[in-house]
Amino acid sequence: MLGEAIGSTLALALAVALSPFPVVAIVLILAGRDGRRNGALFALGWVVGLSVVAALVVLLLGDADDPDSTASAFADWLRVVAGLALIGLGVRKWLRRPRRGEEVAPPGWMASIEGMTPSRSVVLGLLLSGANPKNVVLTASAVAAIIEADVHDADLVAAVAVFVVVGSCSVLGAVLAHLVGGARAATGLDGVRQFMVANSAVIMVVVLLLMGASVLGGGLEGLGR
Question: pTM surpassing 0.85?
Fold first, then answer.
């Protein structure tokens, strides 16, 4: 049961982790003033944000393990709507992608990272994880799949915790690499940042379309039971 619950959410967790925004944010924070402290606080905010969203979904869909319950039907419809929303976001992102040679202005929050304070680092982590519509959709879909795998109590907590850890692996990995690798790691992380910035549109389109199709398929399968 627990293995099935974890396995059903790994792809969704990786989709959360591979979003360009948190990767770019954590690299910039680590390179700035008090980078180690602010980077750790950003990672804390990120983990807490994902955890809060997951906990809220557990409270909302707690009875979804019963296939005949209203909560189960709601969870399936939620995944159908979520899947369509992710596909729609992917198509929208593709249509609005920068054309060759076109300069893209960085988002306002990215430009303000240089003077990041500890409290703002935590808040930014919270917002980029818990208030990001894509993350909310992916987290809700993952938690619905965990609940429908019929896990309870400690196994439920463990499955959600694995999702949060995997969904945070890019941020946590960057902080750990910076702590262990120092200047050499900073060079490698900046290369990752540049790649993410240059290819953010394509990365997001692929992630959104693939995950949207997966989530939609899971919802349709549940409704067909």
Answer: no
* Longest CA span, the chain: 56
Which of the 8 DSSP states describes residue 114? G
Please, are residues 197 and 107 in contact by the beta-carbon 8 Å criterion?
no
CA–CA dist 133, 169 (Å, integer): 19
Q: Which of 135, 131, 139, 127 is nearest to 45 (CA)?
A: 127
Six token digits for residue 115: 């003077």
Dihedral angle of Cα 153, 154, 159, 163, to the nearest 10 degrees: 100
In angstroms and rounded to an integer, the radius of gyration of the C-alpha atoms of the chain is 18
pLDDT digits (tens, 9 = 90+) for 99-145: 666 666 555 556 667 677 889 899 999 998 998 888 888 898 888 88
**Domain layout of the chain by residue ranges:** 2-223
With helix as H, strand as E and coil as C, how does 142-205 read? HHHHHHHCCCCHHHHHHHHHHHHHHHCHHHHHHHHHHHHHHHHHHHHHHHHHHHHHHHHHHHHH
Burial 95-117 (b: 16+ CB within 10 A, else e): eeeeeeeeeeeeeeeeeebeebe
